[in-house]
Amino acid sequence: MAPPSPCLVEVSEMHSWFPENVSTYGGDVDGIFWFIFYIVTVWFFITEGLILYFIFRYRRKPGRSAVYATGDTWSQLAWVLVPLAIVVVLDLLIDIRGADVWAKVKGQRPPAELVVHGVGKQFNWEFIYPGPDGKFGSEDDLATDNELHVPVGKVIHVILSSKDVIHSFFLPHFRLKQDAVPGRQIPVWFEATKTGEFEIPCAELCGFGHSGMNGKLFVHSPEDFQKWNQEKWPVNK
Amino acid sequence: MSSSWTSRIFSTDHKVIAKQYLTLSLFWAVIGAATAYLIRWQIAHPDTEAFGWGYIEPQVYNSLVTMHGTIMVFFVAMPLLLSVFGNFLIPLMIGAKDMAFPKLNALSFWLFFLSSAVLFASFFVPGGAAAAGWTGYPPLSAKNEYTGGAYGMDMWLLALALEFASFLLGGINFLTTTMNMRAPGLTWFRLPVLVWMQLTAAVIFMLSVGPLVAGAILLLMDRNLGTTFYLADGGGDPLLWQHLFWFFGHPEVYVLLLPGVGIMLEVITVFARKPVFAFRPIIYATIVAGFLSFIVWAHHQYISGMDPRLAMPFSITTIIISVPFALIIFSIIATLWGSNISLKSPMLFALGTLGVFIFGGLTGIFNGSAPVDIYIHDTYFVVAHFHYTLFSNVFFGGFAGIYFWFPKMFGRMMNETLGKIHFWLTFAFFNAVFIPMHLVGLRGMMRRIANPMQYEFLKPLESLNMFITLMAILLILSQAVFVINFFWSMARGAVAADNPWQANTLEWSTRSPPPHDNFASPPVVYRWPYDYSRPDSLSDWTPQDRSDDNVRATAR
Fold first, then answer.
1. Shortest CB distance from A172 goes to which of B303, B308, B457?
2. Is the domain of A118 the same as that of A101?
3. Chain A within 8 Å of B231 (Cβ-Cβ)?
4. How far apart are the C-alpha atoms of B409 and B270, rounded to whole Å?
5. A182: which DSSP letter?
6. CATH code, domain with A222
7. Which of A21, A54, B259, B477 is most buried (CB neighbours < 10 A)?
8. Domains defined for chain B, CATH in brackets
9. A159 in reach of chain B (CB within 8 A)
10. How far is the alpha carbon of B515 from chain A, nearest alpha carbon, in Å?
11. Across residues A155-184, what is the average pLDDT?
12. Domain that holds residue A46
């Protein structure tokens, strides 16, 4: 097993709110989360703090009366409009940063080093490998139930579809989720940064067996993946 | 005798109809809470016998999840926020005798009653209640073999169609009444914010519900007539339903939100003794938000399989819709500045609505961001988020409204001490349930799974889930304080004055409770509703029906 990069350890320890990230783009998804988190945390304390302060500061006292302020003049309205302008700027910043991450994960896919079909069905994930000839629909295709084997550090494309209802292909440790929809073939990609076993739950309600619909993703070292290949396609040396 | 009995049950008086809606929505709230209890039990103690119920089958669990969402959104939130407060307050606040179409009003209630009966009966039919989620995504909802259900799903669709017809009639009534029956002098910009919010909600509902009703009929046809609108093997597309559903579903969020914000504003101005800050900008923001609510729907579908290039445009519109709401929130906070606050129970609940809603609004920024949604979509983070936005408006806002208008509805005051206890218990347990739920979601726990212990990566969450369940049970139990207060006060509460809170709006200028035709003589309006603490007035309130001459006469 390859040791995780130091950067990865740091991230997973600092932010243990998430499961460990083991994909190349997971850090970007987490990064945009934390970017938003810091912005909204500041707003949270400003707004809730002001409310609490006003409640204590302006509690009813005999003989005091409230200010008759309607906010009809621009100078009064500025108290609302200036923070609003800041909100707009921050909103745009969040979207601009988000657009890059979205494009990276879902927009364009780097060229595939392994293509697998992922088929959702009540209540399993079926994975289909093209075999040594690299072609789907040929005799050396291999179908596995609930087991996805991939090499570490390679770009994997999974082409998602469904045989019955909508399922959702979820790799929590990779920050990847995509619905598998009957009648559509939807490609997703990921690249693992670490070997190990990870879960592939279904994230969309798919019937009475939804809970427990759970595949396993095996991320192998290059040597182990070679070994797994040899096991599955022994003819091909 | 019998004729008076029937005329009371089938009353056309808007105040009686409002109370009928209140009764039915509180009944549904009890059922909704019971489903929440069973869901939480199963998550914390999977596959054990739930206290008072027994073992929860996976199929039943899916029905519970489906019905919880359906009940709380369509049978508690909508009737409580729109029908109860809209029906009771719109004619009173505009100085009218009743609704424009009193019989239509009664018809909308009885359609809603019929819809409730159909939904309630669906618990008991073979195959159980609908189990395809409150969003009813096909193909799961389109074929019984996929869910294991039978009649439940058809009854669910029928109940929703009836309910939408009922609210459509109600909305038409709200609009017609306000357009035509306002008291002399009550111009559009002298209407209370709550009336504006109710009207905007009615318009949003009317414009968005059509596609969903059409979609529901297509789904009924797929289920019963062999069509394949949503079935890929017959050339249909499951995503069509999602677009139709969310084209309605997201505007619906604002349909629920706006009346709650309206209640919050009415209550806060009265107990802060201060005018609404930025009244007109709030109304403009409401209308802008109403428009924007029609172009954000696909943010529910970032990972649904729609073209990924659509995500960024919808991400941008979604984040833009935060702007009008930020304006409204900032204006409410500005209203509190320099005010004169008394923390009576309606005010506590109104401030609770504000504080809790802000939290929900801020977590919405995460969901609105498409890349973050890749990870948190369909997790408990989303569940926690929408409970912060909806629970705040529906329950904190609803309770604020009930405590505030109870004297006008029933002629008696609610008990203040019990009200405060109710608030603090609700506030504490609500946050204890839903703050940890965000963390559960960030660890990746999916919605609608019956047993998190089936997943290695969710096993560390066991104790947190047990804590959430315990807090949820306490949250539900603490509502007993409200139930006791409600019924006790109705029978034994202190007799209410006509205007116990010294509020300006017209409903307080008549008796408590108001007579059949509301006002002894038709009121005349001289001013906007928020003349609190006018510098030229002796008292800190100036009712809408007091003329300037009268204000000056009472001035120092």
1. B457
2. no
3. yes
4. 18
5. T
6. 2.60.40.420
7. B259
8. 2-554 (1.20.210.10)
9. no
10. 34
11. 97
12. 7-60+68-107
